[in-house]
Specification:
alpha+beta, 30% strand, eight-stranded mixed β-sheet, 2 domains, single chain, 8 helices, FAD/NAD(P)-binding domain, 19 strands, 333 residues, D-Amino Acid Oxidase, Chain A, domain 2, three-stranded antiparallel β-sheet
Length: 333
């Protein structure tokens, strides 16, 4: 395993459970790059029925983890979706049988910290908030012993079908490799003939103070303006991430400039649209792949399976299980 983000460490845990020998390479902290932060939105509301099904499988996985850990993994506060693709999400959920409601202003079904309620909304009844700290503690307890602190520099597939992994700890040979290395996936995958999108962008979310509790998560994709995702990040805390002008968060802009531009855009949004205290109390930075959106890709060449995507925290148990199964039987999910 290359990468101990939420997908890599979840796959390591699933492989261990299946009786496999696992080594997981990670130069930093477990779930410390794109899996950073203490909370994330969970939702069934996707525009693709297959993703709705995958989210259902993930929720079942989170529930199993919660039972084993004796600690909740997902707070079921619900998730509200507004914007241009609301009807597509409703159609996909209806096809799969996921519970939702279409509501309007004054319905009593909306619990959002907004100045003005949206005129129309989809309420994803099964949505909520993932407790990332609980997930991290659980998968670390299950698979943390497989992790070695090393950065992988090269992969090479031999004529016999084994994979040599070269890291700053030396070389080692394996029967199979899962490449789930976040921002480092593209250049490593290219070494073994697998294409994954090489472009990166900067992304940041900000947390504000808020009164009250039990707010629903919210995903808003208006036809114009800043698209946002928002959720209760803890008692008295409200997290807001946004998709600002891509030219302001492109990789070549630089991290500091991208954070500054995102800060301006989301502060303006918070002051105009939300009832939060418009003073940032925390920020969470990560890299992202521009224009990738929801979903996940598995790509294989021989014994190497690469996995990449965005917004994968909410699918972690299902993706970890799928990657583990693929290692064992040589398939491509």
């Amino acid at each position: 395993m290359v990468g101990a983000g939420v997908v890599g460490i979840s796959a390591s845990a699933a492989l261990l459970e299946a009786g496999q020998n696992v080594t997981c390479y990670e130069p930093g902290a477990i779930m410390g790059e794109r899996s950073v932060g203490s909370t994330r939105i969970f939702r069934l509301a996707h525009v693709d029925p297959d993703l709705v099904r995958l989210a259902q499988q993930a929720r079942e996985g989170f529930d199993r983890w919660a039972k084993d850990a004796g600690r909740p993994m997902v707070a079921g506060s619900g998730c509200v979706v507004t914007g241009s693709d609301m009807a597509d999400r409703a159609a996909a959920m209806a096809m799969v049988g996921a519970e939702y409601e279409l509501v309007g202003t004054g319905s009593g079904r909306l619990r959002l910290p907004v100045v003005e309620e949206p005129a129309a909304a989809l309420v994803d009844v099964g949505g909520g908030v993932v407790d990332v700290d609980a997930v991290r503690d659980f998968v670390t307890a299950r698979a943390g012993a497989t992790v070695i602190r090393a950065r992988v520099y090269a992969l090479d597939v031999s004529a016999s079908g084994t994979v040599t992994v070269t890291s700053d700890r030396g070389k080692a040979e394996y029967d199979a490799v899962v490449l789930a290395a976040g921002a480092n996936t593209s250049h490593l995958a290219a070494q073994v003939g697998i294409y994954t999108p090489p472009m990166l962008a900067h992304h940041v979310r900000f947390t504000f103070r808020i009164e009250g509790y039990g707010w629903q998560s919210w995903i808003d994709k208006p036809p114009g303006g800043v698209g946002t995702y928002q959720h209760q990040a803890g008692p008295g805390l409200w997290a807001v991430g946004g998709h600002v002008d891509p030219s302001l968060t492109a990789w070549e802009v630089g991290r500091d400039a991208a954070i500054a531009a995102s800060r301006i855009a989301l502060l303006d949004y918070a002051r105009a649209r939300l009832t939060v205290d418009p003073a940032i109390v925390e920020s969470v930075y990560c890299t992202t792949v521009p224009n990738l959106g929801d979903g996940v890709e598995f790509r294989r060449n021989g014994p190497v399976l690469a996995v990449y995507g965005d917004n994968l925290m909410k699918l972690a148990p299902a993706l970890g299980a799928a990657a583990a199964d693929a290692v064992i039987d040589g398939s491509t999910p």
